[in-house]
Amino acid sequence: MKILLTVILLSIFPNHLFACDCNGTVTVKEELDKSNLVFVGNVISISPIYAKRGDKYYTNVLVKFKISSIIKGESLKTVEIATAASSSMCGFNFKEDKEFLVYSNQIDQGSKKVFWTTNCDRTKEISKATFEIKELNALIK
């Protein structure tokens, strides 16, 4: 009976149960201002990580980047960025050996620095960021 009820609810309200809601798009300047770390980097590896909030467990991914250019934030050669494993949970779908423009924010995880990004941020594959990179360079001068 529980399975039947779950299937019915998922078919009637799928977007309300699992959809990512970004609440609109911000400008390049707004995203730059609110981000702790903005960079261009190549994905070295992607690994699953598991998080617990309350009594629920969530699968996220940890994406390691080799940084080629820092736009905002501390100077790093590599960085790990966390994101949700699913786009329905606002996770960004990174691909290994691809280069991205990444906007990220530091979140508090005790004594460890953890940077986070979502598909609601302006993060994108570098091939789709030509004009945005020019705008960012103009903003940081």
TrEMBL record:
InterPro entries: TIMP-like_OB-fold (IPR008993). Gene3D superfamilies: 2.40.50.120. Keywords: Signal. Residues 1-19 form the signal peptide. This is Tissue inhibitor of metalloproteinase. It comes from Adhaeribacter terrigena.
